[in-house]
Amino acid sequence: MIFLTNLKHLFRKPEFYFFAILLITGLFVYDDYGLSFDEETSRLLNGYINYDFITTQQREPLLFSNEKYHGPAFEILLVFIEKIFNITDTRSIYFMRHLCTFLLFFIAVILIFAAAKKYFGNTNAALLACIFLVLSPRIFAESFYNSKDLAFLSVFAMSIFTLLRFQKKQSIGNAALHAFMCGFLVDIRIIGIIIPVLTIGMFVLDLIHNIFSGQKLVIRPLAYGIFFVLFCGFVVLFWPVLWIKPLSYFIAAFAEMGHYPWGGNVLYIGEKINSVALPWHYIPVWLGITTPVFYSVLFLTGIVFISGKFSKNILGFYRERKEDLLILACFFIPLLSVILFHSVVYDGWRHLYFIYPAFILIAVKGFVSLENYISDKGFLRLRKIVFAVTAVFLANILYRMISTHPYQNVYFNYLAGNPAGKFELDYWGLSYRQGLEHILHTDKSDSIVIASSDYPAELNMQILPYEDRVRMHFSGCPQCSDYYLDNFRMSSFMTEKDKPLFLITAGSTNILAGYNTGKGRSVLKKVLEVTNDFENTYPDWSAGNVTEAGSFSYSGKFVSKMDSRFPFSEEFSIPVDSITDRTHYVLVKVALWKYNFESDFKAVAVLSIGGKKSENAFIYQTFKLNPLMENKKEEWKKVTFEVILPGNIPPGQTMKIYAFSPGNTKIYVDDFSIEISEILN
Q: Out of 62, 256, 360, 476, which residue is the most buried by the measure of CB atoms under 10 Å away?
């Protein structure tokens, strides 16, 4: 009877229906989104490398990884789920990841409701905060596919909840729970250290308050001590690289956080600007133009009301409204730190998504304070107008989210004007999925060759059904392909004169164009075709680390072996002058068979002209020996890639093609073939 009574009581609560609708919506739409640019890297170079270290204790792949200082906690969890449920198909793997990322966000929304209820002492205000958060187009979309920034936002929000809970009651249990959440938070992104620093900071401020005020605050040093010890333990536990050298690697990760080594260009207010030279207002402007304006107005209102109360009685305000200071700190400290220390950011403000729950709480604070002020003044008609305006704004945002689904990540408010050509649009490359699906739906050919302006086109092939994946092939030669896809981010092969076959739009904004390049459009004149099976010596091939493998080889008895002693395969080398007169572009097709003895995400095939290092070569392109997110070991696998050589290569240059294993893992290479053709039209 008690259970039925509680259940009946639950059904009367509006928040129950809100969370039920949110969960059902997520379960219906989680498989609508494409793959984002970072998902392969997050899964393989972060999650899998840490998983392999945990299960095999092999240090080298982890220590050589560029992702070793990126917190792996959530990525490891996703890989364990993949392994436990034996999910092997890439389509199912990424649907699982999208669903799990959303479920983490769903739990975070529930805890934000609990935190907001404590903060406001009002269920309706807490529910409004959750509505504002969910009806934030970019945040909602990224809650499915962004296992970095949105996972961090979710756990950051959970940490705010455990912090408020710990501040309210400094028990051992609350200290342990808060330490666990903070450890997991820091091990997703190290900037999460803000929450434990605030926790200890509040302890110090409480001590100072008790010295200068007659009204004493309850402080339990033992609880804070237990929190700190457990927090340090959880940080090491959830971050495998710290098992090797806890302090030195943590310091190195912290140093990398401020100036992440990414020096690409970003589109900002119509100009391409290097990420290390972005103006101070980059983040505030992006926040302002991608957040519903109504929320921003309420946020500023909340700042005004909080500031007014703070200025009247600082000690009294701290004692009575300590939570306001915590929420303000969660928003302003990260924002000001990025601005003042010139931290490297790009792709909008996604690296600071985690400050958004604090932004929303301050906005709802503004709404509640404004409502109370109007009610106290007796302006009842104005109060009704405020509620009506709020309902209209929320309905408008909901409509835009539904009408642009699944591209809420390209939401801009009216302050941005027409964002095309001024700001990055679908920088994640999600729209490539729909572009590929359109081609597959309209072209029933058994083999379709596609080229694109950006890597996520090939990545999104992995979320298609298997029977569609086998029909598609990607080429580095747009002239040789059947279709060309462009998401307007990188330089395009197409010109303004080329008319798109179809367009993918988000509202009125074009985010992807698909072109029919025409079958047989290019005429190829074969210049050279060679295959090295390593059974004999061949012209233009260096004498590399060839070893006898017997029946273990792919063909014949010999293979080219890469290992810690000699990480390079045999090298094909030829003067560029002998293959082109520079009146035409040249297409180079490479194919080889490789056998991995160990997991290796860094092994590559290299085509270089003018040098063996990217910084001094005229052309230096690398291609993964474990393509399309595969990392199967102990199995022969074919790797192919294509490169188009431009007509402006300086005379006297030499083209070199070889395989390279920078991780020093053992790999066999066999039947290394190269085909070179001139593109005559």
A: 360
In 391-517, the DSSP E strands lie at: 448-452, 472-474, 483-486, 502-506, 509-516
Give the list of residues 6+ apart from residue 662 with CB closer than 8 angstroms, or none: 64, 567, 602, 603, 604
Residue type, position 65, single letter: S
Say how far apart CA 263 and CA 271 lie, in whole Å: 16
Q: Whole-angstrom Cα distance, residue 178 to residue 202?
A: 14
> How many angstroms separate the CA atoms of 524 and 262, rounded?
38
508 burial via Cβ count (<10 Å: 0-12, 13-18, 19+): exposed
Q: What is the 3-class SS of 113-175, one letter each residue?
A: HHHHHHHHCCHHHHHHHHHHHHCCHHHHHHHHHCCCHHHHHHHHHHHHHHHHHHHHCCCHHHH
Rounded CA separation 149/351 (Å): 6
Q: Are 476 and 640 in contact (CB under 8 A)?
A: no
Block residue for tokens 């920088």: 427
For residue 14, what is the enclosing H or E element? helix 14-29
Percent of the chain at pLDDT exceeding 90 = 57
Rounded distance, CA 236 to CA 246, Å? 7
- By the 10 Å C-beta count (0-12 exposed, 13-18 middle, 19+ buried), 510 is classed as middle
Evaluate the CA torsion angle 370, 371, 373, 379 in order and state its sign: positive
Residue partners of 271: CB distance under 8 A and separation at least 6? none
pLDDT tens-digit series, residues 588-599: 999 999 998 876
Question: What is the per-residue pLDDT across 436-470, written as a single tens digit (0 to 9) for each?
Answer: 999 999 999 888 889 898 889 999 999 999 999 98
SS3 assignment, position 618: coil
Determine the number of helices (DSSP H) and then strands (DSSP E) in the chain.
23, 17
What HEC string does 568-587 produce? ECCCEEEEHHHCCCCCCEEE
Query: In terms of C-beta density within 10 A (0-12 exposed, 13-18 middle, 19 or more buried), how is residue 162 classed?
Result: buried
DSSP string, 196-256: HHHHHHHHHHHHHHHHH-SSPPP--HHHHHHHHHHHHHHHHHT-GGGGTSHHHHHHHHHHH
Report the candidate in 165, 163, 176 with the shortest Cα–Cα distance to residue 226.
176
* Category of 279 on φ-ψ map: left (φ > 0), alpha (ψ -120 to 50) or beta: beta
Helix, strand, or coil (residue 423): strand
Q: What are phi and psi of 265, to 5 degrees?
A: -100, 145
pLDDT digits (tens, 9 = 90+) for 141-189: 999 999 999 999 999 999 999 999 998 899 999 999 999 999 999 999 9
Q: How many CA atoms lie within 13 A of 155 on its CB side?
A: 28
Query: Which residue has 């070199």 as its token pair?
Result: 656
Identify the three-state secondary structure at position 111: helix
Model pTM score = 0.86
Tell me the C-alpha distance between 590 and 571, whole Å. Answer: 12
* Span 493-526, pLDDT tens digits: 788 888 999 999 998 899 999 999 865 456 778 8
- Is residue 463 a contact partner of residue 90, using CB atoms and an 8 Å limit? yes
In angstroms, the CA 114 to CA 605 distance is 52
Pairing mode, strands 448-452 and 472-474: parallel
**How far, CA to CA in Å, does 276 sit from each of 98, 284, 495, 660?**
31, 17, 30, 30
